[in-house]
Specification:
With 311 residues, the protein is α/β, with parallel strands linked by helices. It is built from 12 helices and 9 strands. Helix 2 packs across helix 12 and helix 5 packs across helix 12. The structure holds N-carbamoyl-L-aspartate (NCD).
Length: 311
């Protein structure tokens, strides 16, 4: 099966088969990352622009490494040093970049839906590296790959997501992808951070307490409070937040003994995750980062018209 999309903007737009294809390609790509010389000629001659209007450590770096490992030429633009600071519109910036004939633009932007807007207007491929509180498909895919590595499957798992669900694009991509793959999602967070109607997304249960969400969970995904998107303070203070929605060695005991603890980063240690848990035996945080490179290689490969990575 080939990949039919020009752009990858949201996991909600992909079928289960397409998600499986991206994950299995990422599994194959991993072999390249363990070689001495981590480079294959697959995307030689292709140009990738990483256009980041919001800060990023993991996502931007791993998209750049992914492009380089596939031999593409990668160029990075950050908003603070671009003409956005001189008043240029997003569409003008994008059209000017497209005049230089890139093959793929990987973009992070604070406005939800900005990738759909550009995707319709530009002929090059657009990959969403995070749009506001909408989606973060590469994070969703790398989370699924990390869970699959551990359990060999995604269906029938109890996956808890705890924290600021309303403002989290990671939560939206995880819910979208994992429910399609047959996982059951249990969400917990302060009522001010729980989007109304989220249970309509599929196999999703909104829990009244963190205990209910993580009890016997196979996977616990912890989220950072997205202060930059809230516009106002939604919790009395972080100490109280941490008491009710922070994961520590005591409440981790409610989950299965070998439950996976995941976090997209950046972690606010001592707020949503205690250092003991973040660095402990249940933590898969660095495994997620490692898988992020392979997943992004798979995404770049498929929007470039690749078929199966094994071919
Ligand atoms: C996340 C993001 O930017 O959406 N980080 C990431 O990409 N790994 C989550 C966050 O910022 O809390």
């Amino acid at each position: 099966m080939g990949f039919k999309h020009k752009d990858i903007i949201a996991l909600k737009d992909l079928t289960k088969d397409e998600i499986e294809l991206l994950i299995s390609t990422a599994e194959n790509m991993r072999e390249i990352n363990s070689r001495d010389i981590k480079k294959v000629p697959t995307l030689r001659g292709k140009t990738i622009i990483n256009l980041f209007y919001e800060s990023s450590t993991r996502t931007r770096t791993s998209f750049e490494i992914a492009g380089k490992r596939l031999s593409a030429d990668t160029v990075n633009i950050t908003a603070s040093t671009s003409s956005a600071t001189k008043g240029e519109t997003l569409l003008d910036t994008a059209r000017n970049l497209e005049a230089m004939k890139p093959d793929i633009v990987v973009m992070r932007h604070a406005v939800s839906g900005s990738h759909y807007f550009l995707g319709k207007r530009l002929s090059c491929s657009i990959i969403n590296a995070g749009d506001g509180a909408h989606e973060h498909p590469s994070q969703g895919l790398l989370d699924m790959l990390t869970i699959k590595d551990r359990y060999g499957r995604l269906d029938g798992l109890k996956v808890a997501i705890v924290g600021d669900i309303t403002h989290s694009r990671v939560a939206r991509s995880d819910i979208s992808g994992l429910t399609k793959m047959g996982s059951h999602m249990y969400l917990a967070g302060p009522p001010t951070m729980m989007p109304p109607g989220v249970e309509r997304l599929g196999n999703v249960t909104v829990c009244g307490t963190m205990k209910e969400a993580i009890q016997d969970a196979d996977v616990i995904i912890m989220l950072r409070i997205q202060q930059e998107r809230q516009g106002k303070t939604l919790i009395p203070n972080t100490r109280e937040y941490s008491r009710y929605y922070g994961l520590n060695p005591e409440n981790l005991k409610w989950a299965k003994p070998d439950a996976m603890v995941m976090h997209p980063g950046p972690i606010n240690r001592g707020v949503e995750l205690s250092s003991y848990v973040a660095d402990g035996a249940n933590s898969y945080v660095l495994k997620q980062v490692e898988n992020g490179v392979a997943v992004r290689m798979a995404m770049l490969y498929h929007v470039s018209g690749g078929t199966l990575a094994t071919e």
